[in-house]
Amino acid sequence: MGKPIVRDFTQSKGILKFFPYEGAACVVTQASVTVADENGMKIAKAGTPYPSNDASCLGYLLEDVDVTQGDAPGTYVYQGTIDWEKVKSLSPQISDAARKATPRVTFYGAPAITE
């Protein structure tokens, strides 16, 4: 007898505060992660602005993306509500320019954008 196959059909909210959300497929480049973690892995963290943390931001990574071995597929959220408590500790922090560039993304509990 082999080991039974276990499947998880639940949806994880991850960085999201509420469902539903809209997202799009993307390719996260290895060059976008400049610092490896303590295990030598290059991980683009969930909530990271994609493709950059400025006015050209399209959305925010839904889940962690491992780019240790090279560019990797991911999903970015371009419409929905993200829980600020789950992304406020990202380094660098999400910029006001990125937040302004993504008006269809709401950061629940986030401080107001300063002009």
Considering the chains and any ligands shown, give keywords for the structure.
7 strands, 2 helices, globular, five-stranded mixed beta sheet, 115 residues, mainly beta
The mean pLDDT is: 91
Uncertain regions spanning at least 5 consecutive residues: none
Shape label: globular
What fraction of the residues are assigned to beta strands by DSSP?
25-35%
List the helices and strands and how they pair.
Layout: E1 16-28, E2 43-44, E3 49-50, E4 59-61, E5 65-66, E6 72-83, H1 84-87, H2 96-101, E7 105-108
Parallel strand pairs: 6-7
Antiparallel strand pairs: 1-6, 2-5, 3-4, 4-6
Describe this structure in words.
By secondary structure, the chain is mostly beta strands. The chain contains two helices and seven strands; from the N terminus they run ββββββααβ. It has helices at residues 84-87, 96-101, and strands at 16-28, 43-44, 49-50, 59-61, 65-66, 72-83, 105-108. Strands 1, 3, 4, 6 and 7 form a five-stranded mixed sheet that branches. It has a two-stranded antiparallel sheet with strand order 2-5. β3 (49-50) and β4 (59-61) form a beta hairpin. The mean pLDDT is 91.
